[in-house]
Amino acid sequence: MTATGTWADLGPRMVSGAAMVVVGAAAVWAGGWWFGTLAIVAAGLMIWELAAMIRPDQPVAARLLGLAAASGVLLALVVPGVTGLAILAVVALSGAVLLRSHAAIFAIYGFAILLAAWGLVGFRADYGMVWLIWLVLVVVVTDIAGYFAGRTFGGPRFWPAVSPKKTWSGTIAGWIAAALVGLVFLRFTTAGPDLPWISAALSLASQMGDIAESAIKRRMGVKDSSHLIPGHGGLMDRFDGLLGAALLMLLVALIVVVPEVRP
Asked: Fewer C-beta neighbours within 10 Å, C or N terminus of the chain?
């Protein structure tokens, strides 16, 4: 492959990536229903993509499930916690029954999407903007470092049977970059000294989120989840890493006390 071919998608990838960063950063900064609306829309679109991959012959069902997902997250945000979880589970299971194909994949991955969207809104409200910015930056630098290190150094594949483009050089570069984000946040926040290795752990979770989505796409025989975002494919292609990292962070927040972090 020529150098031009290797970097051919860099231009549109950077432009669309910058646009997503601006929109996402504004919503994270504003918090409240601004961020909630972004999470609701993202969940609906990702569920639509998942359903469309599983049943490309049922476009109406995919759209209906996308609307149901967005409505489910919205409802879950305004009812008590356990009830909200039940609503999300019902949406995921109902979609699996409606599609009648790869039901386990839709039920599990669909519920993960809904749970992450719902959980991130609560995470922003409970722990503040700084923690969420840290989480997003860990995912972003993992992706960027992995992209450039993998394209530059190449080398052995990390998991060729599932994600043939992911290399060990890119994977390790992502861990290092994430740990550096943790070190930077230590300089201007009151976060504890464990933040760098926790950042690296979230980097790994982000990469596992990417691999999980790659496995689904290979199973369905598609290259991208959709064509919504130039240079990135669909929202699932862009936010699969955030999905993995968010689920791990939400789990950690349930097990340990997350300290208040002030700039």
From this structure: N
What CA–CA distance (Å, rounded) separates 196 from 171? 16
Q: Which residues of 75-91 are buried (b: 16+ CB within 10 A; e: fewer)?
A: bbbeeeeeebbebbbeb
pTM summary value: 0.88
Contact at 8 Å (CB) between 243 and 112?
A: yes
Look at residues 260, 255, 228 and name the one whose alpha carbon lies nearest to residue 12: 228
Residue 160 has a CB neighbour count (10 Å cut-off) of 11
Q: Give Cβ neighbours of residue 211 (< 8 Å, ≥ 6 apart).
A: 159, 162, 163, 166
Q: Bridge-partner residues for 229, per DSSP?
A: 233
C-alpha–C-alpha distance, residues 253 and 81, integer Å: 15
> What pLDDT digit, counting tens, does each position of 146-193 carry?
988 888 887 788 877 777 778 888 899 999 999 999 999 888 777 778
Q: What are phi and psi of 164, to 5 degrees?
A: -65, -20
